[in-house]
Amino acid sequence: MDEFFDKLKDGAYKAKGGAERIAKEVAKRTSNAITYTKLTFAVNEAQKKVNDVYTEIGKNMYEKYLEGEGYDDTFTASFEQIDRLMDEISALNEKTAELKNTLKCPECGASNPAEADYCIKCGSHLSHETDDDYEDDIDSAYEEAESLADDDDEDDDDDVIIINAKKPE
User: Fold this and answer.
1) Listed residue (104, 80, 77) closest to 90, CA to CA
2) How far apart are CA 113 and CA 21, in angstroms?
3) Can you say whether the dihedral through the CA atoms of 142, 143, 145, 149 is positive or negative?
4) Were both Cys, which of 31, 95, 110, 142 would link to 121 (CB 3.0–4.6 Å)?
5) In whole angstroms, what separates CA 151 from the centre of its chain?
């Protein structure tokens, strides 16, 4: 009878552990969904502000037109505000792309699925290079340089091999 209760107890502990893992995963996904929603909302708010500035520019330009005046520097502040808002939208879209696990095309800036090899908008090759790939590239370049130095039959100390490697950002 004790054996039965021990098995029952073990099963309950296993179920508890599984439930805890599931709860943590659900919490993580919910957190990502909430963050994604907040970022999307922020993008929409910034875009609305841009549209409001566009409307104000149009209204002011039309008034200047009706008054027969020029509008050279009149809109500089509005244009600068639009530039700032567009930068903010771009930064928010990048954060959203990170959450969605997408790759940004280096040529056109379009978001692509993480597993894509080529941009869905312009067809440019997308880089999937990771830090591990970078380390492998450095190691293989070093090994190749060593083998080239070993293959040299002449004992010439003037040979210098320079490897310029820069870690991708």
Assistant:
1) 104
2) 27
3) positive
4) 110
5) 44
- Ordered by start, the domain boundaries in the chain are 2-151
Q: Any bridge partners for residue 15, and if so which?
A: none
Task: Classify residue 58 as exposed, middle or buried by CB count within 10 Å of its CB (0-12, 13-18, 19+).
Answer: exposed
pLDDT tens digit string along 64-118?
767 777 666 767 777 788 888 889 988 888 888 777 778 888 888 888 888 889 9
Tokens encoding 65: 């037109």
Task: List, for residues 49-61, the tens digit of each pLDDT value.
Answer: 999 998 988 888 8
DSSP state of 111: E
Determine the 3-state secondary structure of 121 from DSSP: coil
In terms of pTM, does the model score above 0.70? no
CA 161 – CA 130 distance, rounded (Å): 26
Q: How many of the other CB atoms lie within 10 Å of CB of 128?
A: 11
Q: Measuring CA to CA, how many Å separate 147 from each of 25, 83, 142, 151, 166?
A: 48, 53, 9, 6, 22
SS3 167: coil
Is 59 exposed, middle or buried, given 0-12, 13-18 or 19+ CB atoms closer than 10 A?
A: exposed
